[in-house]
Amino acid sequence: MAIDHTDGAPAAMKHALAAIREGDTIRSQLETVGVPESIGRLLARNVARFGDHAVFSELRDGAYRAVTWNNFARDVASFGAFLASEGVGPGTRVAMVSPNRGEMLVAEFATMGLGATYAPIFSAYPADQVQGLLGQLQPTVIIVAGRDQVAGVALSTATRALVSFDAVDATVVQGIVQGSAARYSTFADALSSGASDTVRCSAFAAHASQIDPNEPCLLNFTSGTSGVLKGVLLTHDNILSQQRALSAIWSVTHHDRFLSYLPWHHSFGGIFEKYSALYNGATIHIDTSRGKDFDALRRNWAAVRPTIYFSVPQVYQQLVTHVQSRPEDEGSIFHAGLRFVFTAAAPLPANVSAYFASKGVAVLEGWGLTETSPCCTLTDLAQPRTVPGMVGYPIPGVTIRIAADGEILVRGPNVMRGYFGNPEATAQALPGDGWFHTGDLGEFVGAGLKLVARKDRVFKMLNAEKVVPTEIENRLAGMNNYIRHVIVAGQGERFLAALIFPDYFRIAEQFGDDREAAERVVKESLRTTLLAFNSDHPVRYERIQAFAVISKELTIENEELTPSMKVRVRNVLSNAEEYLEAVYAPSADCDCRFLRKVMRLRPDDRACFAGIERSLDQCHSCGSFVFGDAPDAEPTQLSH
Questions:
Q1: 9 and 3 Cβ atoms separated by less than 8 Å
Q2: Which of 256, 356, 495, 552 could pair with 361 as two cysteines, CB 3.0-4.6 Å apart?
């Protein structure tokens, strides 16, 4: 399929039609575009094609300032010379602990251009976790943003240099490097020490271009939704095979503008989004909102006017909510140049997807894991999103199989080498049968893939009935705009219950400071939604008999969300033990502040344990139901 890369129009989408099913596998009939290459070869190619075009742009003094491919390549070669002088080369690792910023791209390309492995670590992890990951990596060079990240640095005998983007107090640095073989340098000094002229830049580019694409270059830690973080070892071709596949499906060009907040230590932002831009010469505009500060996001959105946008559902929900509340801002958000948006990490609620469609903006969704670099399937721009859980069709070069137990297996050039320093986990995921065992359950819809759940999320009730909670959760979230997250519980219990985390951003946009109205409307809306679900749901034992509202946001800091905003269900359930006790084992020992957060959808005439003349099914009438009054809850703010 020929792709026109000369203008900003989307490529003709034949992705769905190209997918075929052969027995228990599906694959694409489309061929990938181009041949395997190294990251260094990508750099050389783009310098030749787009030398004076911006590779990235970031805010400085209130305005976006661009760095061209020519200047970027010079900095890469200069920093590469510094890294080489510190012993960085094949078989070594460079660790990065920083929020997204342009210097990270320089360090990444310089490391990979030397044949070494780049290992980004989430900068907001606590110090002890960062130290543990550095201990696994044994990096030759450690790079941090500045003072806040230095606290998590622990040098090993392998470490030769500590580098910071921002200057750090000399006393603090001295305390870290003292007694080690490592020396400290600012990033600016490192660039100066390795400053490259045209000849040295050309030599670096030539060497980087010749690196075997099958050599490792990136070590990404998994998001950790269900256990210990594992280091995924990926090659140059693992990363770029995605782009060769996508070039047969869509058209991204150097005219496109990306507004990027997704953290670069994770595969969705750091591989899929970032290299979709880099591979095609599009400009990455670094978003300082980090997906958390909506006012900053709106300002940056207005300044950049992105043509392609990657995000998790929460931000799309906020964009839609804001436009619905403030129609005057619609033109700046759903502007004419916005071609399509991409969502991952969790299904986008159907009402949000429909709103984008009503504005003429297509929503793409995909599925994959860090271990698959990450994308394996992609929905079709020309096809309406009507099947819940449908995550698209295999991209060219990737074959997907459903095992006898429903597990999704993957084969293709995107599959990892293995887990760094963890042969047991590698053998479990890559048992030698030619397939990567994903741990996800799925089923085929024609020649497309429907995602069902993680294997470890499926549970049995007391009556031994098997429940797939993800399907119920996705449906409930799509039925009510006031639901931010919902978790279905009931393992080993007589009935199912739901833990609901309200969307306080939407509530604030709609009700302002009128908490009384918000309480009344949202409470009734949630009750109506759960009753409607039960009325329509054909499987009797999967109907929800009670739900609890937990009046707080899930956070990364409480280890309830991964840095990529996936829900750590096990941790959420553990943190909600008092609510679950109030649902399943109400007694005089239960704190009333949890009992009144539970609404029972079936009659329960047991008397109130506090002596109030109410039955247990009326506990929700005491105090606030929607807003926070649990012992450990912070006051819920209605403003953003």
A1: no
A2: 356
Residue (of 18, 566, 615) closest to 345 by Cα position: 566
User: Which of helix, strand or coil describes residue 620?
Assistant: helix
Size (the chain), residues: 640
3-state secondary structure of 631: coil
With beta carbons less than 8 A apart as the criterion, state whether 208 and 112 touch.
yes
Q: Kindly tell me the burial class for residue 542, based on how many C-beta atoms sit within 10 Å of its own C-beta (0-12, 13-18, 19 or more).
A: buried
Q: Where in the chain is the domain with CATH 3.30.300.30?
A: 458-621
Q: How far is C-alpha 582 from the chain's CA centre?
A: 33
CATH class of 458-621: alpha beta
- Give the Cα separation of 558 and 544 in Å (integer): 27
Q: Which residues contact 165 (CB under 8 A, 6 or more apart)?
A: 98, 101, 103, 143, 144, 145, 146, 186, 187
C-beta neighbour count of 632 within 10 angstroms:
9
Q: Where in the chain is the domain with CATH 3.40.50.12780?
A: 1-37+247-453, 59-212
Angle subtended at Cα 75 by Cα 310 and Cα 5, rounded to the nearest 5 degrees: 45
Could you confirm whether domain 1-37+247-453 is CATH 3.40.1350.10? Answer: no
Query: Which parts of the chain register pLDDT below 50?
Result: 1-13, 630-640
What pLDDT, in 10s, does the model give residues 414-437? 999 999 999 999 999 999 999 999
Round to whole Å and give the CA distance between 258 and 254: 10
Residue 353 confidence (pLDDT): 85
- For the structural domain made of 59-212, what CATH number should be given? 3.40.50.12780
Note the pLDDT of residue 78: 96
Sheet with 231-235, edge to edge strand ranges? 183-186, 161-164, 141-144, 93-97, 117-121, 216-221, 231-235, 418-419
d(CA 288, CA 103): 15
pLDDT at 635: 34
Angle, alpha carbons 245-225-106 (nearest 5°): 50
What is the Cα–Cα distance from 108 to 218, expressed in whole angstroms?
A: 9
| pLDDT in the model for residue 609 | 84
Return the number of other C-beta atoms located less than 10 Å from residue 478's C-beta.
18
Residues 6+ apart with CB under 8 A from 203: none
